[in-house]
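Example 3.2
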Amino acid sequence: MQSSQGQGDLHETVGAYALGILDDAEATAFEEHLATCEWCAQQLDELAGMEPMLAALADLPGTRGTPAIGETLAVRPSPQLADRLVDEVSERRAKKRRRGFYLVAAAAALIIGGPVTAIAVTGGDTTQQAAPEQTVSPAKQVFSDTAAKDKVQATDASTQVSLAVGMDSKPYGTGLAMELKNVKGPQKCSLIAVGKDGERETATTWTVPKWGYGIEGAATELARNPLYLQGAVAMKTADIDHFEVVTFDGDKLAEVDV
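Structure, written as tokens:
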């Protein structure tokens, strides 16, 4: 849009202002006009719910033209303006969807420390795939960097769940990095540090999805990857007797002595 606008142009700008797609100069000019124009103020109130309507219209393939925004509006936007508004909303929603995908991928990398593959889709073609990037989660990195002498590991004879814990003495207590394998879901679990005096402290909690973690021979890489998590307890490392993985229902899945 041009920054120099006449009175008629400013009347037509109300829709773009309602969607927040004006630049700073255009928005300032319209706000100055709005202070003295009751008609635009009324239209702005009526257009308050226009973005969801345009968003729905933008989701319909091949749909263009003036959206039906109700008979109460005294003036309908021109087809050109309506097309621009629909395009703006469509692009904004596309950005949100892309951002949501990236956040899900990043969250998966942080939890399981497995590779994340980005898929590029253009023109409806889903066969184009970027090279996978190996991403190591912070918890896995900490666990890997922990010296062998500061790690303990055991596999429960009954559940076959494998638990390994790396310990790092800190001024506040003990920092922990955990690796968990062969645990099936769905269920919720906790890592418990048990002191030599019997005191119990929860280091971290998590949810095991239905596909599980660290399942050898599983059909998907997601299920084959172990679970890596970080946690901490107030106990000094020398005061810890053992660690337990316990479900929220009270079932012990694994135990490892320090």
